[in-house]
Amino acid sequence: MILVTGATGFLGAELAKELLLRGNNLRCTKRASSTLPEILLPYSAQIEWVEADLMDLFALENALEGITQVYNCAAWVSLKAADKEPMILTNVKGTANLVDLCVERNIRMVHTSSVAAVGEAKPGEQITENHHLDPTTEEDGYAISKLESEMEVWRGIAEGLDAVIVNPSIIIGTSAGIEGSGQLFETIRKGLKYYSGGIMGFVDVQDVAKCMILLMESNITAERFIINAENRAYQQIFNEIATCLGVEPPKKLARPWMLEVAWRGASIWGKVTGSDPSIDKTSARAASVSRNFDNSKIKQAVNFEFKPLSDSIREICESYRSGVQV
């Protein structure tokens, strides 16, 4: 049997759906307070849901009973400064708990990390799996948590764990709704006046799920893979989304000093309201940085071709026009 952790999240739900469509027996973890994702409701009778937090070792032990493969998609994501240290502790300790049990029970794992945990390349070069984040200079709590979680997986591999790590770029898809990357589409739909000057990688959520399954079903172990369809300038992708949604594309460049003002203002507003800031210092500064990711390793390893990003954008825009995120 297969276990998917974090199956109520964007990627985890899409992965669970793909596994079910392939006829797999599936167990999924959720918190007691979690709402089941809409895309999994038609398959509720085919999923064995268990309440288990990765920090709860006893619940995790029960969830892993009879499991031979684990897809780890669970993670705490927050932009709040107050959440930085507890988020790092939770993500890293939760991964360590899962790794220890998988080593003990000889369970194969595909662990979901992020390109946030991959380092920078020299100017003019693409970022590959051989680059590593420098934790001594990184301020982004999420990136640090992902890097240190990866290190727990590598520690497990040294102890005999059969595992692969995936590092997706920005994941998009219709089932995101207006959360996460879906906020980008919603913001542009409402009218965005500024674009940022950087470049970033994007990938469809279905492609991430398919790559993870192909890796799980392969004999590949002790490797990490960047999962990225295309690298796009923010201006280009903002314009394409706006055109697809039938709204005015952003015309003005948000210069670094403007983004600096924006994140400071968002931070103050977040403290006043107690909500997550719409932009933080790390994401504001990253918006002006060009990051080009090399996807050749995953394409060669499992003979995979990514869905064109324009197709994904069109599908998402069509779901907005129909008023339904599926």
Automatic annotation (TrEMBL):
Pfam families per UniProt: Epimerase (PF01370)
Annotated Gene Ontology cellular component terms: cytoplasm
Q: Note the InterPro entries from the entry.
A: Epimerase_deHydtase, NAD(P)-bd_dom_sf, NAD(P)-dependent_oxidoreduct
Annotated NAD-dependent epimerase/dehydratase domain ranges read 2-218
This protein's source sits in the domain of life called Bacteria
What's a single GO MF annotation on this record?
A: aldehyde dehydrogenase (NAD+) activity
Signal sequence, renumbered to the chain: none
Please give the name of this protein.
Answer: NAD-dependent epimerase/dehydratase family protein
- Native species of this protein? Mucilaginibacter terrenus
